[in-house]
Amino acid sequence: MSNSRASWKKVLPTAAAAAMMLTATMAAAPAQAEEKPPATLTVIASGLKNPRGITAQSDGSVLVAESGEGLPGCAAGTRCLGATGAIVKVPFGGSMSRVVTGLPSVAVGTADPTTVNASGPAQAVRSTTGGYTVLAAFGGPGTPQLRTSLGGSAKTLGTVFRTGDGKVLGDMVTHEATLNPDGGDINGNPWRFVQDGSGFLATDAGANDVVAGPGDGTTSTKYVLPKNGTAESVPTGIVKDSDGTLYIADMGGGQVGGSRIWKVPPGQQPQVLVSGLTNIVDIALDWKGDLLALSYSSSSLAGAPTAGSLSEIDLSTKKVTTVPTGDRLKQPSGIVVDTYGGVYITNHSVGTKGQLVRIWY
To answer: Is-annotated flag, keyword Signal (predicted)?
Structure first.
């Protein structure tokens, strides 16, 4: 694990360990971005607490995972566990409501509580058995020892779990501590997941891998993403196309031009589809079949984050086109395309003044 990980703790909120090498059977296509006309951004919901991933539902609504604010009143510099994580539902054309509250959230207290950066729910989908399936991130670093020290209520941090009965469907923190697939520091920090049959595939930004879980509590390592030069991969967004092809984004160590998007056809190993992007924190497939890539910051995460950006990638030609959003994307975190083709992004995702915005372009 290199010392560079401290620079992007602010984002995920922990970083990855050194990765094992994969053989890339497809040559990387350097990103040559073109621009579209200026996009229109509309704020759909505000006052979100560390909003993360978004899920589109068949009724036109979207779900937003809120990582919460840790424990309100936590002393500055002290790590505290609270029950402020939530799932927010936003109907198409309607007002937001928190459909699940009281989920575990951990954060280090800050002098200004509106700037607190919490770990907690990072993605939620409606479960076929009722309730929701939730992926909870765990910054810290993500070790079993740290989680245990926070008390029994922290048991779902760093896992994919089910609301209602709290059943853990897969524990990425334990997986990382037990197997350490990349051979680096122990650091489990899952970020996004897709459903895979009756189970799931989850990216782990702290462990540099993709973990498979059949849904019975067991896990296995599906892929380990290699470094980009000396930069850790830090896997983030993951989506599955209708033909079963996976697309996985990485942050490339928070370096300018270090991010890659990987393509994984069914039965094959990851192949680099596009490289040369910056700080890709999430991805989505749009109604045209193109891939949308969301950048958390256009500059190196060794310094303060600058405006984020949105890119459209033609999967046939690998052409990258920038969607002009000016400086209006500030520390964005999640992206989804709804059933009507609308693009939603969680904006201002660090702190308690987060937004859900819709983009037209």
So the answer is: yes
